[in-house]
Amino acid sequence: MAANLPRISEQWVYDPVGPDGTVQLDTPAWFAWLGAETTRRFSYPLFDPHLGYIVGFMTVRKEKRQRGGEYWVAYRRVGGQLRKVYIGSSGAVTAERLEAIANRLGGKEAASSEQVSQ
Fold first, then answer.
1. Containing domain of residue 68, as a range?
2. Helical H runs in the chain?
């Protein structure tokens, strides 16, 4: 994980180039932060409730479509394979959606809608 990568912790954004802890998930400030041209990616923790701690991170990236527009995708490398899960537009990047994707990527089985790359 890059040292200057913004990260999510306990529903707050910690951005090394912005004011820490001032953007909370699912608020208008969160969606404005996601829509900003300077926001291209961030990391999200994968918490394992059985172990009681964070077992890794997924990287969430904003990608451009060929026909215009942008969307968010989550990535995580597991067992040498890169797993990719489509999230959607900035409006779809909610705490609930991120948590659901983190749970999928935290498991050992790839979900059927995931794309696996090498």
1. 7-117
2. 28-35, 95-106
